[in-house]
Task: inverse folding
Protein backbone atom coordinates (compact mmCIF):
# COMPACT_ATOMS: atom_id res chain seq x y z
CA UNK A 1 0.00 0.00 0.00
CA UNK A 2 2.70 2.42 1.04
CA UNK A 3 4.70 1.41 -2.00
CA UNK A 4 1.72 2.24 -4.20
CA UNK A 5 1.39 5.62 -2.51
CA UNK A 6 5.06 6.31 -3.13
CA UNK A 7 4.69 5.42 -6.77
CA UNK A 8 1.66 7.69 -7.10
CA UNK A 9 3.09 10.63 -5.16
CA UNK A 10 4.97 12.28 -8.07
CA UNK A 11 1.75 12.21 -10.05
CA UNK A 12 -0.34 13.74 -7.29
CA UNK A 13 -1.06 16.97 -9.21
CA UNK A 14 -2.14 15.01 -12.27
CA UNK A 15 -4.30 12.69 -10.20
CA UNK A 16 -5.87 15.65 -8.46
CA UNK A 17 -6.48 17.46 -11.74
CA UNK A 18 -7.70 14.51 -13.78
CA UNK A 19 -9.44 12.34 -11.21
CA UNK A 20 -10.20 14.12 -7.97
CA UNK A 21 -11.25 17.46 -9.38
CA UNK A 22 -13.62 16.04 -12.04
CA UNK A 23 -15.32 13.86 -9.43
CA UNK A 24 -15.64 16.67 -6.90
CA UNK A 25 -16.62 19.19 -9.58
CA UNK A 26 -19.23 16.87 -11.06
CA UNK A 27 -20.68 16.16 -7.63
CA UNK A 28 -20.88 19.87 -6.82
CA UNK A 29 -22.40 20.69 -10.22
CA UNK A 30 -24.97 17.96 -9.72
CA UNK A 31 -25.84 19.20 -6.28
CA UNK A 32 -25.94 22.91 -7.21
CA UNK A 33 -28.89 22.67 -9.54
CA UNK A 34 -32.23 24.40 -9.35
CA UNK A 35 -35.46 22.67 -10.28
CA UNK A 36 -36.84 25.45 -12.43
CA UNK A 37 -35.32 28.43 -14.24
CA UNK A 38 -37.50 30.68 -12.14
CA UNK A 39 -35.92 29.37 -8.96
CA UNK A 40 -32.49 29.84 -10.44
CA UNK A 41 -33.25 33.37 -11.60
CA UNK A 42 -34.58 34.29 -8.18
CA UNK A 43 -31.49 32.87 -6.56
CA UNK A 44 -29.14 34.59 -9.03
CA UNK A 45 -30.93 37.88 -8.44
CA UNK A 46 -30.67 37.52 -4.68
CA UNK A 47 -27.09 36.25 -4.69
CA UNK A 48 -25.30 37.44 -7.84
CA UNK A 49 -21.85 36.63 -6.46
CA UNK A 50 -22.76 33.07 -5.55
CA UNK A 51 -24.52 32.65 -8.89
CA UNK A 52 -21.33 33.72 -10.66
CA UNK A 53 -19.29 31.23 -8.64
CA UNK A 54 -21.77 28.44 -9.40
CA UNK A 55 -21.74 29.23 -13.10
CA UNK A 56 -17.95 29.30 -13.09
CA UNK A 57 -17.93 25.94 -11.32
CA UNK A 58 -20.32 24.49 -13.87
CA UNK A 59 -18.17 25.84 -16.67
CA UNK A 60 -15.03 24.04 -15.52
CA UNK A 61 -16.65 20.86 -14.20
CA UNK A 62 -18.26 17.85 -15.85
CA UNK A 63 -21.98 18.46 -15.97
CA UNK A 64 -23.64 15.12 -15.49
CA UNK A 65 -27.19 16.47 -15.47
CA UNK A 66 -26.76 17.67 -19.03
CA UNK A 67 -25.37 14.24 -19.86
CA UNK A 68 -28.50 12.68 -18.38
CA UNK A 69 -30.69 15.05 -20.36
CA UNK A 70 -28.77 14.25 -23.53
CA UNK A 71 -29.25 10.57 -22.86
CA UNK A 72 -32.97 11.07 -22.28
CA UNK A 73 -33.26 13.05 -25.51
CA UNK A 74 -31.46 10.28 -27.33
CA UNK A 75 -33.71 7.65 -25.76
CA UNK A 76 -36.79 9.71 -26.62
CA UNK A 77 -35.63 10.13 -30.21
CA UNK A 78 -35.04 6.41 -30.51
CA UNK A 79 -38.41 5.57 -29.04
CA UNK A 80 -40.15 7.74 -31.65
CA UNK A 81 -38.45 5.96 -34.55
CA UNK A 82 -40.26 3.09 -36.26
CA UNK A 83 -38.92 -0.37 -35.58
CA UNK A 84 -36.15 -1.41 -37.97
CA UNK A 85 -37.33 -3.02 -41.17
CA UNK A 86 -40.85 -1.58 -40.91
CA UNK A 87 -41.42 1.53 -42.95
CA UNK A 88 -44.97 1.48 -43.97
CA UNK A 89 -46.14 5.00 -44.89
CA UNK A 90 -49.52 4.50 -43.28
CA UNK A 91 -47.94 3.64 -39.94
CA UNK A 92 -45.61 6.62 -40.19
CA UNK A 93 -48.46 8.94 -40.87
CA UNK A 94 -50.37 7.47 -38.01
CA UNK A 95 -47.43 7.98 -35.70
CA UNK A 96 -47.21 11.64 -36.64
CA UNK A 97 -50.86 12.11 -36.03
CA UNK A 98 -50.59 10.43 -32.67
CA UNK A 99 -47.64 12.63 -31.66
CA UNK A 100 -49.56 15.72 -32.59
CA UNK A 101 -52.33 14.71 -30.24
CA UNK A 102 -49.97 14.58 -27.32
CA UNK A 103 -49.81 17.57 -24.99
CA UNK A 104 -46.74 19.75 -25.38
CA UNK A 105 -44.26 18.80 -22.69
CA UNK A 106 -42.97 21.61 -20.56
CA UNK A 107 -39.25 21.96 -21.07
CA UNK A 108 -36.91 21.62 -18.14
CA UNK A 109 -34.01 23.91 -17.22
CA UNK A 110 -31.68 21.31 -18.61
CA UNK A 111 -33.12 21.82 -22.07
CA UNK A 112 -30.84 24.85 -22.18
CA UNK A 113 -30.74 27.12 -25.22
CA UNK A 114 -33.76 25.65 -26.98
CA UNK A 115 -35.86 26.20 -23.93
CA UNK A 116 -34.61 29.75 -23.51
CA UNK A 117 -35.30 30.53 -27.17
CA UNK A 118 -38.80 29.22 -26.67
CA UNK A 119 -39.25 31.44 -23.67
CA UNK A 120 -38.01 34.48 -25.60
CA UNK A 121 -40.44 33.69 -28.39
CA UNK A 122 -43.24 33.52 -25.87
CA UNK A 123 -42.26 36.88 -24.44
CA UNK A 124 -41.42 35.38 -21.08
CA UNK A 125 -38.04 37.09 -21.01
CA UNK A 126 -36.74 40.27 -22.57
CA UNK A 127 -33.08 39.38 -23.00
CA UNK A 128 -31.37 39.90 -26.33
CA UNK A 129 -30.64 36.34 -27.49
CA UNK A 130 -27.55 37.51 -29.36
CA UNK A 131 -25.89 38.40 -26.07
CA UNK A 132 -26.83 35.20 -24.31
CA UNK A 133 -29.22 35.15 -21.41
CA UNK A 134 -26.65 35.36 -18.66
CA UNK A 135 -27.67 32.01 -17.31
CA UNK A 136 -27.21 28.48 -18.52
CA UNK A 137 -26.28 27.29 -21.95
CA UNK A 138 -23.95 30.06 -23.08
CA UNK A 139 -20.16 29.87 -22.78
CA UNK A 140 -17.92 32.88 -22.77
CA UNK A 141 -14.60 31.60 -24.17
CA UNK A 142 -12.24 34.12 -22.47
CA UNK A 143 -14.10 33.56 -19.23
CA UNK A 144 -13.84 29.81 -19.64
CA UNK A 145 -10.10 30.01 -20.32
CA UNK A 146 -9.63 32.30 -17.33
CA UNK A 147 -11.49 29.88 -15.10
CA UNK A 148 -9.51 26.91 -16.38
CA UNK A 149 -6.19 28.66 -15.86
CA UNK A 150 -7.26 29.83 -12.41
CA UNK A 151 -8.36 26.30 -11.50
CA UNK A 152 -5.06 24.83 -12.72
CA UNK A 153 -3.05 27.41 -10.79
CA UNK A 154 -5.12 26.85 -7.66
CA UNK A 155 -4.70 23.10 -8.04
CA UNK A 156 -0.95 23.45 -8.49
CA UNK A 157 -0.71 25.71 -5.47
CA UNK A 158 -2.75 23.30 -3.39
CA UNK A 159 -1.27 20.07 -4.60
CA UNK A 160 2.24 20.52 -5.75
CA UNK A 161 3.87 23.31 -3.85
CA UNK A 162 4.97 22.48 -0.34
CA UNK A 163 6.28 25.43 1.64
CA UNK A 164 9.94 24.65 1.45
CA UNK A 165 12.24 27.42 2.60
CA UNK A 166 14.07 29.24 -0.20
CA UNK A 167 17.34 27.83 -1.51
CA UNK A 168 20.07 29.81 0.20
CA UNK A 169 23.17 28.01 -1.02
CA UNK A 170 24.16 26.90 2.49
CA UNK A 171 26.48 23.99 3.13
CA UNK A 172 24.43 20.81 3.66
CA UNK A 173 24.30 19.74 7.34
CA UNK A 174 25.68 23.12 8.47
CA UNK A 175 23.87 24.77 11.36
CA UNK A 176 23.32 28.40 12.20
CA UNK A 177 21.11 30.80 14.13
CA UNK A 178 18.57 32.92 12.31
CA UNK A 179 16.27 35.22 14.26
CA UNK A 180 17.16 33.51 17.53
CA UNK A 181 16.21 30.09 16.20
CA UNK A 182 18.54 27.20 15.33
CA UNK A 183 18.54 26.23 11.66
CA UNK A 184 19.95 23.21 9.84
CA UNK A 185 20.98 23.22 6.18
CA UNK A 186 19.40 20.49 4.06
CA UNK A 187 20.83 18.68 1.06
CA UNK A 188 18.89 21.04 -1.19
CA UNK A 189 20.72 23.92 0.50
CA UNK A 190 17.76 25.34 2.38
CA UNK A 191 17.81 26.48 5.98
CA UNK A 192 15.27 24.47 7.95
CA UNK A 193 14.32 25.72 11.38
CA UNK A 194 14.59 23.42 14.40
CA UNK A 195 11.65 23.85 16.72
CA UNK A 196 8.67 26.16 16.60
CA UNK A 197 9.71 28.82 19.12
CA UNK A 198 12.56 31.22 19.61
CA UNK A 199 15.29 30.45 22.10
CA UNK A 200 14.41 33.56 24.07
CA UNK A 201 10.90 32.18 24.65
CA UNK A 202 12.42 29.33 26.66
CA UNK A 203 14.86 31.55 28.49
CA UNK A 204 17.85 30.99 26.25
CA UNK A 205 19.70 32.43 23.33
CA UNK A 206 20.48 30.80 20.01
CA UNK A 207 24.14 29.89 19.92
CA UNK A 208 26.47 28.15 17.49
CA UNK A 209 29.16 26.15 19.19
CA UNK A 210 31.31 23.51 17.53
CA UNK A 211 29.25 23.83 14.38
CA UNK A 212 26.02 23.07 16.24
CA UNK A 213 23.21 25.58 16.66
CA UNK A 214 21.09 25.24 19.78
CA UNK A 215 19.42 27.18 22.55
CA UNK A 216 21.88 27.85 25.33
CA UNK A 217 21.20 29.49 28.68
CA UNK A 218 21.83 33.20 28.33
CA UNK A 219 24.64 33.26 30.87
CA UNK A 220 26.47 30.39 29.14
CA UNK A 221 25.86 31.41 25.57
CA UNK A 222 28.94 31.54 23.41
CA UNK A 223 29.53 33.94 20.58
CA UNK A 224 26.37 34.18 18.53
CA UNK A 225 26.59 33.38 14.89
CA UNK A 226 27.16 36.36 12.64
CA UNK A 227 23.79 35.88 11.07
CA UNK A 228 21.91 35.99 14.34
CA UNK A 229 19.47 38.83 14.50
CA UNK A 230 20.61 40.07 11.14
CA UNK A 231 18.12 38.21 9.02
CA UNK B 1 6.99 6.22 39.59
CA UNK B 2 4.97 7.17 36.56
CA UNK B 3 1.53 5.58 36.51
CA UNK B 4 -0.73 5.08 33.53
CA UNK B 5 -3.37 7.44 34.85
CA UNK B 6 -0.79 10.24 34.97
CA UNK B 7 0.07 9.65 31.32
CA UNK B 8 -3.62 9.67 30.50
CA UNK B 9 -4.08 12.90 32.42
CA UNK B 10 -1.16 14.42 30.52
CA UNK B 11 -2.76 13.34 27.25
CA UNK B 12 -6.09 14.85 28.29
CA UNK B 13 -4.40 18.09 29.30
CA UNK B 14 -2.51 18.43 26.02
CA UNK B 15 -5.61 17.47 24.04
CA UNK B 16 -7.63 20.19 25.71
CA UNK B 17 -4.86 22.74 25.18
CA UNK B 18 -4.54 21.99 21.47
CA UNK B 19 -8.05 20.95 20.52
CA UNK B 20 -7.08 17.39 19.66
CA UNK B 21 -8.90 14.12 20.22
CA UNK B 22 -6.88 11.19 21.54
CA UNK B 23 -8.16 7.75 20.61
CA UNK B 24 -6.72 4.74 22.40
CA UNK B 25 -6.98 1.17 21.07
CA UNK B 26 -9.85 0.42 23.46
CA UNK B 27 -11.94 3.38 22.36
CA UNK B 28 -14.99 2.64 20.23
CA UNK B 29 -13.72 4.28 16.98
CA UNK B 30 -10.49 2.28 17.08
CA UNK B 31 -12.34 -0.95 17.85
CA UNK B 32 -14.79 -0.22 15.04
CA UNK B 33 -11.99 0.56 12.58
CA UNK B 34 -10.22 -2.71 13.41
CA UNK B 35 -13.47 -4.62 13.08
CA UNK B 36 -14.14 -3.04 9.69
CA UNK B 37 -10.64 -3.89 8.55
CA UNK B 38 -11.08 -7.47 9.69
CA UNK B 39 -14.48 -7.74 8.00
CA UNK B 40 -13.04 -6.31 4.80
CA UNK B 41 -10.25 -8.86 4.84
CA UNK B 42 -12.78 -11.69 5.25
CA UNK B 43 -15.13 -10.33 2.61
CA UNK B 44 -12.47 -9.65 -0.01
CA UNK B 45 -9.76 -12.29 0.14
CA UNK B 46 -7.63 -10.30 -2.29
CA UNK B 47 -7.35 -7.58 0.34
CA UNK B 48 -6.42 -9.95 3.15
CA UNK B 49 -2.70 -9.32 2.70
CA UNK B 50 -3.15 -5.57 2.71
CA UNK B 51 -5.44 -5.74 5.73
CA UNK B 52 -2.92 -7.89 7.60
CA UNK B 53 -0.14 -5.42 6.80
CA UNK B 54 -2.29 -2.52 7.95
CA UNK B 55 -3.11 -4.37 11.14
CA UNK B 56 0.55 -5.02 11.87
CA UNK B 57 1.35 -1.35 11.30
CA UNK B 58 -1.63 -0.19 13.32
CA UNK B 59 -0.41 -2.26 16.24
CA UNK B 60 2.85 -0.37 16.47
CA UNK B 61 2.39 2.96 14.69
CA UNK B 62 0.43 5.84 16.18
CA UNK B 63 -0.90 8.45 13.81
CA UNK B 64 -2.18 12.01 13.86
CA UNK B 65 -4.94 12.71 11.39
CA UNK B 66 -6.45 16.11 10.59
CA UNK B 67 -10.22 15.91 10.25
CA UNK B 68 -12.96 18.54 9.89
CA UNK B 69 -13.87 17.79 13.51
CA UNK B 70 -10.34 18.46 14.73
CA UNK B 71 -7.05 16.64 14.89
CA UNK B 72 -7.43 13.01 15.88
CA UNK B 73 -4.53 11.16 17.46
CA UNK B 74 -4.82 7.41 17.21
CA UNK B 75 -2.52 5.64 19.65
CA UNK B 76 -1.30 2.16 18.82
CA UNK B 77 -1.53 -0.74 21.29
CA UNK B 78 2.25 -0.63 21.57
CA UNK B 79 2.15 3.05 22.52
CA UNK B 80 -0.17 2.47 25.45
CA UNK B 81 1.63 -0.64 26.68
CA UNK B 82 3.50 1.23 29.41
CA UNK B 83 3.07 4.67 31.00
CA UNK B 84 6.40 6.11 29.86
CA UNK B 85 5.89 5.13 26.25
CA UNK B 86 2.32 6.43 26.47
CA UNK B 87 3.53 9.85 27.61
CA UNK B 88 6.33 10.02 25.04
CA UNK B 89 4.08 8.95 22.18
CA UNK B 90 1.29 11.32 23.13
CA UNK B 91 3.80 14.18 23.27
CA UNK B 92 5.23 13.19 19.89
CA UNK B 93 1.81 13.05 18.23
CA UNK B 94 0.67 16.21 19.98
CA UNK B 95 3.60 18.04 18.42
CA UNK B 96 2.18 17.00 15.04
CA UNK B 97 -1.20 18.32 16.15
CA UNK B 98 0.50 21.59 17.04
CA UNK B 99 2.16 21.70 13.63
CA UNK B 100 -1.22 21.19 11.96
CA UNK B 101 -2.78 23.86 14.09
CA UNK B 102 0.01 26.39 13.54
CA UNK B 103 0.47 25.84 9.82
CA UNK B 104 -3.09 25.03 8.81
CA UNK B 105 -4.23 21.44 8.42
CA UNK B 106 -4.37 21.43 4.63
CA UNK B 107 -1.08 23.19 4.02
CA UNK B 108 0.77 21.25 6.69
CA UNK B 109 -0.55 17.97 5.32
CA UNK B 110 0.62 18.90 1.83
CA UNK B 111 4.00 19.89 3.21
CA UNK B 112 4.30 16.60 5.03
CA UNK B 113 3.30 14.43 2.11
CA UNK B 114 4.92 16.33 -0.75
CA UNK B 115 8.23 17.38 0.78
CA UNK B 116 10.51 14.75 2.34
CA UNK B 117 12.65 17.53 3.83
CA UNK B 118 9.68 19.11 5.59
CA UNK B 119 8.56 15.65 6.69
CA UNK B 120 12.02 14.94 8.11
CA UNK B 121 12.04 18.23 9.97
CA UNK B 122 8.50 17.75 11.33
CA UNK B 123 9.31 14.25 12.52
CA UNK B 124 12.62 15.32 14.06
CA UNK B 125 10.83 18.01 16.07
CA UNK B 126 8.19 15.48 17.16
CA UNK B 127 10.80 12.89 18.14
CA UNK B 128 12.65 15.56 20.09
CA UNK B 129 9.52 16.25 22.12
CA UNK B 130 9.12 12.56 22.88
CA UNK B 131 12.78 12.28 23.87
CA UNK B 132 12.49 15.32 26.09
CA UNK B 133 9.50 13.82 27.91
CA UNK B 134 11.49 10.62 28.37
CA UNK B 135 14.40 12.67 29.71
CA UNK B 136 12.16 14.50 32.17
CA UNK B 137 10.62 11.28 33.48
CA UNK B 138 13.72 9.08 33.59
CA UNK B 139 16.56 11.53 34.09
CA UNK B 140 18.57 9.78 31.39
CA UNK B 141 19.77 12.10 28.65
CA UNK B 142 18.54 10.55 25.42
CA UNK B 143 20.72 9.58 22.51
CA UNK B 144 20.02 9.89 18.82
CA UNK B 145 20.06 6.18 18.10
CA UNK B 146 16.44 5.25 18.60
CA UNK B 147 15.01 8.33 16.93
CA UNK B 148 17.37 8.02 13.98
CA UNK B 149 16.49 4.37 13.55
CA UNK B 150 12.83 5.35 13.43
CA UNK B 151 13.47 8.20 11.00
CA UNK B 152 15.37 5.82 8.74
CA UNK B 153 12.64 3.19 8.89
CA UNK B 154 10.17 2.39 6.16
CA UNK B 155 7.48 4.34 7.94
CA UNK B 156 8.67 7.75 6.79
CA UNK B 157 10.25 6.98 3.42
CA UNK B 158 13.14 9.35 3.88
CA UNK B 159 16.35 9.23 1.87
CA UNK B 160 19.74 9.47 3.53
CA UNK B 161 19.96 13.22 2.88
CA UNK B 162 16.63 13.81 4.59
CA UNK B 163 17.56 11.61 7.53
CA UNK B 164 20.72 13.73 7.81
CA UNK B 165 18.54 16.84 8.05
CA UNK B 166 16.50 15.15 10.76
CA UNK B 167 19.68 14.21 12.58
CA UNK B 168 20.81 17.83 12.52
CA UNK B 169 17.52 19.00 13.99
CA UNK B 170 17.62 16.30 16.66
CA UNK B 171 21.24 17.14 17.52
CA UNK B 172 20.27 20.76 18.01
CA UNK B 173 17.42 19.83 20.36
CA UNK B 174 19.50 17.30 22.33
CA UNK B 175 22.24 19.87 22.79
CA UNK B 176 19.64 22.31 24.08
CA UNK B 177 18.41 19.69 26.57
CA UNK B 178 21.98 18.90 27.61
CA UNK B 179 22.54 22.58 28.31
CA UNK B 180 19.66 22.50 30.76
CA UNK B 181 16.98 24.14 28.67
CA UNK B 182 13.70 22.88 27.34
CA UNK B 183 13.91 22.50 23.55
CA UNK B 184 12.13 25.32 21.70
CA UNK B 185 9.06 23.22 21.00
CA UNK B 186 5.57 24.14 22.14
CA UNK B 187 4.58 20.70 23.41
CA UNK B 188 7.85 20.28 25.29
CA UNK B 189 7.15 23.57 27.06
CA UNK B 190 3.56 22.50 27.80
CA UNK B 191 4.60 19.12 29.22
CA UNK B 192 7.27 20.68 31.42
CA UNK B 193 4.83 23.28 32.74
CA UNK B 194 2.19 20.62 33.47
CA UNK B 195 4.60 18.32 35.24
CA UNK B 196 5.97 21.17 37.34
CA UNK B 197 2.46 22.23 38.28
CA UNK B 198 0.90 18.83 38.96
CA UNK B 199 3.58 16.19 39.46
CA UNK B 200 6.92 17.83 40.22
CA UNK B 201 8.02 14.69 42.05
CA UNK B 202 7.99 12.81 38.75
CA UNK B 203 10.64 15.03 37.15
CA UNK B 204 13.85 13.01 37.30
CA UNK B 205 16.02 15.36 35.23
CA UNK B 206 17.61 17.57 37.90
CA UNK B 207 17.98 20.65 35.67
CA UNK B 208 14.23 20.85 35.16
CA UNK B 209 12.87 20.40 38.69
Result:
Amino acid sequence: MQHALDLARPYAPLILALVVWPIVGAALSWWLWWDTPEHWEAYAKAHPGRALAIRALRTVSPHLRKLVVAWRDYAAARSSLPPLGIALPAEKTGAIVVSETRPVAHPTPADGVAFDAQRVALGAVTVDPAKGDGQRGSVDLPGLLTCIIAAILAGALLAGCPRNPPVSGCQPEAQTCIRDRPHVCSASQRWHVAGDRTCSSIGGQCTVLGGRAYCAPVADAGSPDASEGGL
Amino acid sequence: MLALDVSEALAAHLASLHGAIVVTPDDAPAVAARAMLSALARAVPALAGLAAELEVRANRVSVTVPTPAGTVIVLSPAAVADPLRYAMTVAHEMQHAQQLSAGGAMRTSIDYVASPELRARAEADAYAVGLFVGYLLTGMLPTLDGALASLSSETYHLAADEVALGRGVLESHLTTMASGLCPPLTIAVDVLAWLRATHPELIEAGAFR
